[in-house]
Amino acid sequence: MAIKTSLRTLIATALVVSACGGGATATTTTTSSTPPQITLATTTTQPFARPPASYFEFRQQPAACNAETPPEARDLRFDAPDDMELDPGVKLLATIQTSCGPIDLELDPSLAPETVNSFVFLAQSGYYDGTVAHRLIPGFMLQAGDPTATGTGDPGYSLPDEFPPAGFIYETGVVAMANAGRGTTGSQFFIVTGDASHLQPLFTVIGTVSTGLDTLALIDQVPLGPNIRGEASVPLESIYIESITITPLG
Question: Which residues share a beta bridge with 247?
C-alpha cells in the first residue's frame, strides 16, 4: 500500500511539473531538482526509436484512432483574454472534437469565472485547433492545451488561482487546469479519467464531461512511450484536438 501511495504522489507531482516542462527552472514547493523516474507497468506500449518531444515531432506520427491529420495549430499569443461577458448563471457546452471522437464538457463559469472566460476565449480564437494531447496516463488523466506539445506552452498570460475548496475530490470526468504552481494557470487542461483522489485541490476546475467517456476509453488505448522522466505517458499516435465549439446551455 505504501508503494502505491508513493507512486500516486509522484504522478500528482508530475502533473504540476508537466505544465512547465518539468525543467530545472520550475518554481514549486512540490518538485525536486532530480525528477522521479516513474514507470506504469500497466501502460500499453509499442517499440519506438524515441517518443515525440515537440509539436513538430507529433506531426510526424500517425493520428490516433485511424483519424486524418488536421491542419497545423496556429502560433497564437495574447497579452490577456478578452472579456467574453459570460453569465455566471448560464453553463456552457464545449464540444471537443478529437481524433478519437467528440467529448462534451459542461463548463460552469460560477466555479472559476476568470478561468472559464479564458478557456472560452482561447477556444473561440482557434487556439486549441490542431493541437495535440501531449500526456496520457490511462486510468488517471489526459492532458492537452499546449500548442508546443512540450509541457511548457502557454497563451502568453497567466490566470489568478481559482482553486476548489479544501476536501474537493477530482472525480472521473472533472476538467481542470494544469499548472506549474500557484499563479501559473494558462491554457493547459486535463480531464480526469480514473482515480485522482490523491490530488490536492490545487488545480482550477472549469467543468465536467457530460458525454464522451467512450471517446476517452478509446484514447486510453493509444500506445505510449516514456517522457524525459521515464514516465510512460507520451502518445505514440497523435491525439489531436481538431476543434472546440462553445454553445450556451439552457
Answer: 93
Q: What is the pLDDT of residues 2-27, one digit of tens each?
A: 334 444 544 554 555 455 344 333 32
pTM for the full model?
Answer: 0.83
- Asked if 50 and 37 touch (Cβ cutoff 8 Å), the reply is no
Q: Give the length of the chain.
A: 250
Whole-number Å distance between alpha carbons of 244 and 240: 11
According to DSSP, the residues that pair with 244 across neighbouring strands are 96
Angle at 215 between CA 209 and CA 220, to 5 degrees: 105
d(CA 80, CA 243): 21
46 versus 108: which is more confidently predicted?
108
- Name all domains of the chain by residue range, CATH numbers in brackets: 2-248 (2.40.100.10)
H/E stretch holding 17 reads helix 2-18
Torsion of CA 59, 136, 113, 131, to 10 degrees: 0
